[in-house]
């Protein structure tokens, strides 16, 4: 029997519903799917990967980022959110965000994510057709949301223009194996009732997810109560916006009533732990959300507020932070956190065919070198993944059945070329950013 790729002799962590773990197994891949997982596969392939002393597991799923913002990594750190956004990030975006910015930034982000074990990510930004082209070429699975706001964006003069753009993007990419177009109204404070409902109507028409920031800061909640007499979650529910299609990002400041609404409407949540900490937004009640059966995935947010896209860092921070703020070492256990980065992330993105290693599912697979000092000895693989491993331990990545990284080398892009282009573009940003900081 013939396959395209066979991975042999690895420890296989499936992240399926039973948490099956094989101490030694082979995986066969044909086309874009896993066709066999067994102690000794009968399949043969031209490409055989020996995973001896390595862990084979599902690729990680980043449920929210702003990929192109890798070009703003570290440009404005250690300052309050309103100053960070209004004085630095927004003016720089207004001046520099164009097709070239997005192409270079997304190439850099995709390379970073692949090299740290991420095989799927959800994005919210601008010029998403350019982002789609970059992701397609490098071979990463992407869920791309063109930002819809009440005011002009870098590529659209009006919200209506943004919505038309999204519709055209969906038409162009709807049959693609890697590129998924979603609708992304920015937030309830930047996208009013009319445009929120237009966004929902478009998502319903296209049958795609709705990706939106919700209740990130105390100020946002206070403004919503002042303007609408209710929290952002209550407002979104009141206008009929919420549904099982929603990817609600952050959800830091939630009341008990908000949580009840999210549960009732089957809203999915993207948890951005490191960004929430760095911008001092507060701590999201993720334990309470999960206790209510609400689906929660992990996300890095953009590199301007994190400052990397390494999901292993995110897992480590999530597990430790929630233990610390609750003074309870039993909450947010390692197995739960790994699920949030894989199988639960797939649920957030509403893609049941990714997130675990099972026959018939998409072959989104990463291989981690376990024969390293900081990963020795191994007593609990989940514990190691959350508290010891890092993105640089990923040696091989397969996305949609295609080998995109082997032995830490990207096979689908010139990594040095990407870095050089990013550094050249950053020189233009550097002079402007330094000028602003001097004022």
DSSP helix count? Answer: 15
Integer tally of domains: 2
CATH architecture title of the largest domain: Alpha-Beta Barrel
Quick check: average pLDDT?
96
Dominant shape: globular
> What's the CATH class label of the largest domain?
Alpha Beta
Question: Helicity level, as a percent range?
Answer: 25-40%
Strand % is 15-25%
For the sheet with most strands, the description reads:
9 strands, mixed
CATH homologous superfamily descriptor of the largest domain? Metal-dependent hydrolases
Q: In brief, what are we looking at here?
A:
This protein has 439 residues and is α/β, with parallel strands linked by helices. It has 15 helices and 17 strands.
How is the topology of this model organized?
Blueprint: E1 2-13, E2 21-30, E3 33-38, E4 44-50, E5 54-58, E6 60-65, H1 81-96, H2 99-115, E7 118-125, H3 128-138, E8 141-148, H4 159-173, E9 179-185, H5 193-206, E10 210-214, H6 218-228, H7 232-238, E11 246-250, H8 256-264, E12 268-271, H9 273-278, H10 286-291, E13 296-298, H11 311-326, H12 334-341, H13 343-348, E14 365-369, H14 381-387, E15 394-399, E16 402-406, E17 409-410, H15 415-438
Parallel strand pairs: 1-4, 1-5, 6-7, 7-8, 8-9, 10-11, 11-12, 12-13
Antiparallel strand pairs: 1-2, 2-3, 5-14, 14-15, 15-16, 16-17
Helix pairs in contact: 1-15, 2-3, 2-15, 4-5, 11-12, 12-14
Structure overview:
With 439 residues, this protein is of the alpha/beta class. The protein folds into 2 domains: 2-58 and 364-409, Urease, subunit C, domain 1 (Roll), CATH 2.30.40.10; 60-348, Metal-dependent hydrolases (TIM Barrel, Alpha-Beta Barrel). The protein is 39% helix and 24% strand. The protein is built from 15 helices and 17 strands. It has helices spanning 81-96, 99-115, 128-138, 159-173, 193-206, 218-228, 232-238, 256-264, 273-278, 286-291, 311-326, 334-341, 343-348, 381-387, 415-438, and strands spanning 2-13, 21-30, 33-38, 44-50, 54-58, 60-65, 118-125, 141-148, 179-185, 210-214, 246-250, 268-271, 296-298, 365-369, 394-399, 402-406, 409-410. The strands form 3 sheets. Strands 1, 2, 3, 4, 5, 14, 15, 16 and 17 form a 9-stranded mixed beta sheet that branches. A 4-stranded parallel beta sheet has the order 6-7-8-9. A 4-stranded parallel beta sheet has the order 10-11-12-13. Strand 15 (394-399) and strand 16 form a beta hairpin. The chain is globular, with a radius of gyration of 21 Å. It starts with a strand and ends with a helix.
């Amino acid at each position: 029997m013939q396959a395209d790729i066979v991975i042999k002799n690895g420890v296989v962590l499936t992240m399926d519903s039973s948490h099956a773990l094989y101490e030694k197994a082979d995986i066969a891949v044909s086309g874009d799917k896993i066709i066999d997982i067994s102690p000794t596969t009968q399949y043969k392939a031209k490409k055989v990967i020996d995973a001896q002393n390595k862990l084979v597991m599902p690729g990680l799923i980043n449920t929210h980022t702003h990929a192109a913002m890798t070009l703003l990594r570290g440009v404005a750190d250690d300052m309050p959110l309103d100053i960070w956004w209004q004085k630095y990030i927004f003016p720089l975006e207004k001046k520099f965000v164009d097709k070239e910015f997005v192409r270079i930034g997304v190439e850099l982000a995709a390379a970073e994510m692949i090299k740290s074990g991420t095989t799927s990510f959800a994005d919210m930004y601008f010029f998403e057709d350019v982002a789609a082209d970059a992701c397609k070429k490098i071979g990463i699975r992407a869920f791309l949301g063109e930002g819809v706001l009440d005011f002009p964006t870098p590529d659209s003069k009006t919200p209506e223009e943004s919505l038309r753009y999204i519709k055209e993007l969906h038409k162009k990419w709807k049959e693609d194996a890697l590129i998924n177009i979603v609708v992304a109204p920015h937030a309830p404070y930047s996208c009013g009732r009319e445009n929120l409902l237009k966004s929902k109507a478009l998502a319903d028409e296209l049958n795609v997810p709705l990706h939106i920031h919700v209740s990130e800061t105390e100020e946002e909640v206070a403004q919503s109560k002042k303007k609408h007499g209710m929290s952002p979650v209550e407002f979104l529910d009141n206008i009929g916006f919420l549904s099982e299609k929603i990817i609600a990002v952050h959800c830091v400041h939630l009341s008990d009533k908000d949580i009840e609404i999210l549960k009732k409407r089957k809203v999915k949540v993207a948890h951005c732990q490191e960004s929430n900490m760095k911008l001092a937004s507060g701590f999201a009640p993720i334990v309470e959300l999960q206790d209510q059966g609400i689906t929660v995935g992990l996300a890095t947010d953009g590199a301007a507020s994190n400052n990397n896209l390494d999901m292993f860092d995110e897992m480590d921070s999530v597990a430790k932070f929630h233990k610390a703020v609750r003074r309870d070492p039993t909450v947010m256990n390692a197995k739960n956190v790994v699920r949030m980065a894989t199988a639960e992330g797939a649920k957030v993105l509403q893609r049941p065919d990714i997130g675990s290693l099972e026959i018939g599912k998409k072959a989104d697979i990463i291989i981690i070198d376990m024969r390293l000092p900081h990963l020795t000895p191994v007593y609990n693989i989940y514990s190691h993944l959350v508290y010891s491993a890092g993105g640089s331990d990923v040696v091989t990545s397969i996305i949609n059945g295609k080998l995109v990284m082997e032995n830490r080398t990207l096979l689908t892009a010139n990594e040095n070329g990407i870095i050089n282009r990013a550094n050249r573009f950053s020189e233009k940003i550097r002079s402007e950013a330094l000028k602003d900081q001097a004022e």
